[in-house]
Amino acid sequence: MAERAGVLEGLRAYRMIAGMWVRAGMTYRVSFVVTLFGNLVMTGMDFAGILLMFSQVDSLAGWSLPEVAFLYGASVTSFGLAHLAAGSMPHLGRRIRDGSFDVLLVRPVPVLAQVGGDQFSLRRLGRFVQGGAVLGWSLVAADIDWTVAKVLLVPLMVVSGAAIFVAVFVAGAAFQIYAQDAAEVQNAFTYGGTTMLQYPPSVFGKDLVRGVTFVLPLAFVNWVPAAHVLGRPYPLALPGWTAFASPLVAAGCCALAGLAWRTGLRSYRSVGS
Question: What band does 164 get if pLDDT is binned at 50, 70 and 90?
């Protein structure tokens, strides 16, 4: 009960902090709209690159444009949700270096909620909107034999993928408590991870695919469930039931990330600045 009360308190604090930053950001609405549009255009450049590639080839490792667009849309939409919720996590190293992290520790508010809600910005919605648009188009354009299970699996995949990415953000923040400045390492697994997932697993080496399936299970963001939706071979010949394992993988990742965060927080020593 105490742990549940702590979670609810953290969510309430996060909502209040995020709301404060939203109200501050909406003070300059023209700037907000311009920034949101710019963010949407910039994130769309990745898909423009995929379109350019398919203007020269008919398929990528046997995958058609709508199928690759499905991978892209699922990955970017999930990452967009996670980035909206936890996109401030990579800035933790800067707070540790300048000593402002110590201020968060003395406030009667869960530290993780403060770090996650810090500088919350709705302009990050641009990535989510752009990814969702591509995902929506791919669902219409791809040759999918729809069933009830596949219809339910698409939103489940997006939400579970977002939870997996949030767990990676939190685990990366915990690592920064030890390293004090490891934002680029964290970005390699978050931004780098979503970029990798935009392409079919068959274009990568088997060792890499094993790593993002059994070590850092990013494959469950889209590769594994997409195999069921699109009727494609499962990565590493996984059994069919794994297509529906993303929620369990996400729950496990969040539990491990929470443990890493609590361990890192207990070991923190002020930089003295």
Answer: very high
When mean pLDDT is compared across 123-132, 143-152, 158-167, the lowest value belongs to: 123-132
- Per-residue pLDDT for 180 more than 80? no
Q: How far is CA 177 from the centre of its chain?
A: 20
CA distance linking residue 199 with residue 114, whole number of Å: 35
Q: Which residues contact 84 (CB under 8 A, 6 or more apart)?
A: 122, 124, 125, 127, 128
State whether the Cα torsion 66-70-75-81 is positive or negative: positive
- In tens, the pLDDT along 98-113 reads 888 888 888 888 888 8
Q: Are 131 and 216 in contact (CB under 8 A)?
A: no
pLDDT for 212-244, tens place per residue? 999 999 999 999 999 999 999 999 999 999 999
